UniProtKB/TrEMBL annotation:
Pfam families recorded: ThuA
Name of protein: Class I glutamine amidotransferase-like protein
Segments forming domain ThuA-like: 38-300
Region Disordered, residue ranges: 220-264, 305-338
Bias-annotated ranges (Polar residues): 316-329
Keyword Transferase annotated: yes
Organism: Meira miltonrushii
Signal peptide positions (record): 1-25
Amino acid sequence: MVSVPPQVRLISFVALFAFFQSASAIQQLLAFDKISEGAYRHESIPTAIDVITRLGNGQIVLNTTSADVTVANDKQKWNTTVSDDDSLWEDPNYLSQFDAIAFVMTADKDDGSTTLLSPQAKVNFAKYIQNGGGFIGFHVACGCLYDTPFYGRLVGAYFDYHPEIQPVGIKALTNNNPSTSKFPASFQINEEVYHYRTDPRLLPSAPIVLLSNSTVFNDPQAANRTRSDGPPPRPLAWVRSGNLLDAPSTPLGQGMDDPEYGPKYSGGPGRMFYTSLGHLNETWQQIPMQAHVAGGISWVMASPTCRSRKGDSPLKEQSSPSDVPNSAIRSRRYHSKR
Ligand SMILES: *[C@@H]1O[C@H](CO)[C@@H](O)[C@H](O)[C@H]1NC(C)=O
Ligand SMILES: *[C@@H]1O[C@H](CO)[C@@H](O)[C@H](O)[C@H]1NC(C)=O
Ligand SMILES: *[C@@H]1O[C@H](CO)[C@@H](O)[C@H](O)[C@H]1NC(C)=O
Ligand SMILES: *[C@@H]1O[C@H](CO)[C@@H](O)[C@H](O)[C@H]1NC(C)=O
Ligand SMILES: *[C@@H]1O[C@H](CO)[C@@H](O)[C@H](O)[C@H]1NC(C)=O
């Protein structure tokens, strides 16, 4: 028998333990649902949070007729932490616990007079994405952080306006993503069809557009638009992979470009998923929506750049003070519950 020195045994035990811990660790999702004061709070947020949580823990069971094979089961798929407390983000180690962050109908005021995150939270969020963390946005997630260009590029475009809620047919443009692989051929819902201030397809990390409208909808404001989000098909949900924060060489305008003398952000090797659907409770209760959401979240979390898939933290480097404007360095240890 070969004798192994105790310290070697200890080291291999520790390595093995670390391996199993990371290999078996359940993936972690932060469901962030902060609404700035005075911004629109969707009534469907609690329903959305409930559905996202139960899709993750296996309480909502989807089968392979209605959902992608990768999410159709009763197993735990991810663990959801629900929070609207961005002061926690000022500790870079907080975000590093999560494989992906979902903005669940987070909202700022449309005129840009509010901003969801503190300057330090924004810096840590950018670093989290630059280190491979995943991003998911639901519905008005494109209607916040209007003053934060890297966020506009991360989500893909900022919200412009929507016509009134009305029945609209939604169709999948591809079956090659778990989010839409089983999307029904004709899906009719009451929804706000979103328009954006810019075309997400102009970003260097081009989106794969997942959903569009299959029917014409009533949109009187369209005739008077000053902003354009590009030609058909109308993007209603999309995924992107890699270079999530990169700006195109031709400025996009509408708050999407880094300021000339301000912080510049690029990179972001992970994945993102955005869907504009989700205004009403009823939307979240429908199986095609649940399959869309479960597939999108799982696809983002399947990125090899995610925390639990690389076996270490996406935030290895701490933010250096030079990244933070002086006004941003402040302590906010205590906060009131919103
Ligand atoms: C939506 O569902 C939430 C509970 O999840 C409920 O509080 C709210 O009243 C519902 N809104 C509508 C319009 O039904
Ligand atoms: C799959 O799920 C759908 C929606 O819940 C249901 O209508 C269908 O009967 C299920 N099919 C099977 C084979 O269980
Ligand atoms: C799931 O998240 C909750 C809330 O953050 C946390 O308390 C719990 O420990 C997590 N469970 C697992 C199995 O990761
Ligand atoms: C989508 O809606 C727009 C605006 O109503 C319309 O111009 C377009 O034809 C619709 N697309 C389809 C495939 O119906
Ligand atoms: C579009 O602009 C015209 C001219 O200013 C105005 O008469 C019309 O009411 C506007 N339509 C909408 C839907 O805002």
